[in-house]
Amino acid sequence: MMATTHVFAALAVVAPVAYVVPEFATPLAVGAILGGLAPDFDLPLEHRRTFHFPLLGLAGAVPAVGLAVVVPSSGTAALAAFAVAAWLHAASDALGGGPEMDPWNGRTERAVYDHAHGQWIRPRRWIRYDGAPEDAALAVALAVPGLVVFDGWVAALVLGGITISVGYALVRRRVVDWTGEWDWLE
Questions:
Q1: Taking the domains of the chain in order of start, what are their residue ranges?
Q2: Residue 87 is inside which H or E element, if any?
Q3: How many CA atoms lie within 13 A of 107 on its CB side?
Q4: What pTM was computed for the model?
Q5: d(C-alpha 47, C-alpha 20), whole Å
Q6: CA 53 → CA 12, 46, 151, 169, distances in Å?
Q7: Which residues contact 99 (CB under 8 A, 6 or more apart)?
Q8: Mean pLDDT in runs of 10 for the chain (186 residues)?
Q9: What single DSSP character describes residue 113?
């Protein structure tokens, strides 16, 4: 899935909390956005293995949420949002294709690495590849809670992200032709 889809999913998860506790809306949004992006910082490393923790990430998310409930503050809210978003990103990568630049060719059965079991989780291909039409549709749908609950810079970021998502989806399959196969991404 696209990075924007991951960010919109994270914002959708924290949106109900931000609505109920508006004084934590900004830290929740910051944590969700950063956590939604963080796993992909492994792009130049071993993508979807180095910073992706689809099962073990839950072991960090649950205590972070517990801490935010017991000791509510801007910091604990942001930490909980970050941990949940990073886990959600890693776990949801199994719903798409593989990490290669042209996953529509189905060259690999490796979606995301499961550190708990020491093996790769196979791609489900419900979202065939990042930037697929269904990925863009999901991104737009997941953006709605963020637009409804958040305002200001967060809403502007979401609107910009929608534009980027749709634009990327329109050119995604041509990206490989334009850039060539980037071996360092695989």
A1: 3-173
A2: helix 74-92
A3: 7
A4: 0.92
A5: 36
A6: 20, 13, 31, 26
A7: 47, 48, 108, 110, 111, 112, 185, 186
A8: 97 98 98 97 90 94 98 98 98 89 81 94 92 96 98 98 97 78 48
A9: E
